[in-house]
Amino acid sequence: MRIHASALLWILVGALTVGLGMWVILQQAKDDRRRLTYIVSRTQADLVTAQQVNQTLLQAANKKLELANADIAKAQTIIQGLKEEHRSSAQAQSLAAPKPQLLKGWSEAVNLSLGVTCRVPLWARVETNDATALTLVVERSTKLAARPAADARWFSITPYDERLEKELINSLATSTSVAYLVHGHSLLGRRGRLLGSAQTIFVLRARQDGANKYLIWARTHEGVSDQMLLAVFSTLNFKPV
């Protein structure tokens, strides 16, 4: 009996030893699995972060490339504009300042918002003077007062607007190209007439440094001749705003 009991005891001890060994092995396996799961999760998170960083860097690079292309296109437009301005200036008529006796009694019209000044006859009245335009009208005479619907406007300068320029030019029945030089600015555009009208109309864009700055519309009127309009153009001064 003692032998059987001793053998049974050793069997139990062996079983416990094997069981303990298996438990230790299983725990190590669980720990290894958790560690591997953590490593895989961490690796995946790092991969997602790296992809996000790469995407951000790619978007930033594309944005810089777009800005660089825009700057290049802008520079090319300015260069092309300067070439056009140079060609036009070579053939432009330089408008010299009128003789002092012609300007006697003239006043100065000033638009601080646009940075524009010019000399105008005393009978010229300012109708609009703000950031949108400097508009001059003929002071309403008795003859004009008898015709309330008559349009007394004869001069307007606004920030350049390509759409408006095209509309004004397209409204002319006949026109010819004109180019003037005034205080470092090129005045380029058309001189023409409306259908059935004897009035002369100027549609000019004032350019500087290869860019269109202002749009000028002017027309002859009662007491406003072509020469008077050119005299007003010659007094234009443009200042940065």
Explained architecture:
Helices cover 48% and strands 28% of the residues. It has 241 residues and is an alpha+beta fold. It has two domains: 1-91; 95-238, 3-Layer(aba) Sandwich (Protein Transport Mog1p, Chain A). The strands form two sheets. It has an eight-stranded mixed beta sheet, sandwiched between helices. Strands 2-3-11 form a three-stranded antiparallel beta sheet.
Helical stretch tally:
5
- Helix proportion: 40-55%
- DSSP, total strands: 11
CATH architectural group of the largest domain = 3-Layer(aba) Sandwich
* Secondary-structure element series: HEHEEEEHEHEEEEHE
Compute the number of structural domains. 2
- Low-confidence spans: pLDDT under 50, at least 5 residues? 142-149
Broad CATH class of the largest domain: Alpha Beta
Provide key terms for this protein.
241 residues, eight-stranded mixed sheet, three-stranded antiparallel sheet, rod-shaped, single chain, alpha+beta, Protein Transport Mog1p, Chain A
